[in-house]
Amino acid sequence: MPATTSPIISKIPSAVPDTTKFPRILCLHGGGVNATIFEAQSRSLIRHLQHSFRLVWADAPFLCDPHPDVINVYGSYGPFRRWLRWQDEHTEIDPDSGIDEIGYAMRTAMEDDDREGGTGEWVGLMGFSQGAKLAASLLLEQQAREAFAQREGKKVDTGLTGIVGLNWRFGILLAGRAPLSNLNPELLKSEALVSAGNISEGFQFCREVDDEATLRKPTLHVHGLADPGLFLHQKLLDEYCEIGTTALVEWEGAHRIPIKSKDVDRVVEAIYDIAESTGVDVTRTV
């Protein structure tokens, strides 16, 4: 008789859960797309993560042309948006106004989710490309406020969202590039950070990464080995993040979000690991 193999039994629950009380992750899209596109691109991750987290998709504040990579599939999904400048034609803005606009866009998405019934703690940030750069920059900004409060013996000030008591525990950085952006120039003076009003790409603005610009919050880095920006993703991991605070998943893909099970499972497992390491309970689906 021919040999048979047992079917793989999925650990993903069949019923879509009520995520109202689940811990929440704020999801930050890349440049030249929007929240709706990022959600669609993340569909394979969502199948797993929706059983542990409430995923909230934020729209960036600034309009721009669509990213060339999304025109064929998502060309009708505009308007297209960005968090930061990366091209000369993007309208110049002073750093404080840029930071205020980013904070307002995030707060809008978070308060909208409160109104839609979400009550869980905000625990993590997940970003792709420019959104990953922003997620890491937000973690660094929180780290700076915490360090200042400890030095001064004070309570931690509210960050750029204006939401009191917000504490990001970890970041999921999908194809996140160095350098990081300075989202609190009053506290962060490092020349290894790019002003929120400047072009966000290119190291002509940056010096060697110093202690102040070194991120110590837990971060998961997901790198596509065929991504043309891989060297900048590696620079973020190797130079901007403290050794021992990071995890890395590499996959044989380009500048996009994994969708095949063999890649998605590894990313999801790493997300569960980093969440649990910060005290967040998860329902493992891999």
Give a summary of the structure in a few sentences.
With 286 residues, the chain is an alpha/beta fold. The protein has helices at residues 35-41, 43-49, 71-74, 95-115, 130-152, 230-240, 261-277; strands at 24-28, 54-58, 62-64, 80-82, 122-128, 170-174, 181-182, 194-195, 219-224, 246-251. It has one domain (24-277): Alpha/Beta hydrolase fold, catalytic domain (Rossmann fold), CATH 3.40.50.
Topology readout:
Layout: E1 24-28, H1 35-41, H2 43-49, E2 54-58, E3 62-64, H3 71-74, E4 80-82, H4 95-115, E5 122-128, H5 130-152, E6 170-174, E7 181-182, E8 194-195, E9 219-224, H6 230-240, E10 246-251, H7 261-277
Parallel strand pairs: 1-2, 1-5, 5-6, 6-9, 7-8, 9-10
Antiparallel strand pairs: 3-4
Helix pairs in contact: 2-7
Keywords: Hydrolase
Protein name: Serine hydrolase domain-containing protein
InterPro entries: AB_hydrolase_fold, FSH-like_dom, LovG
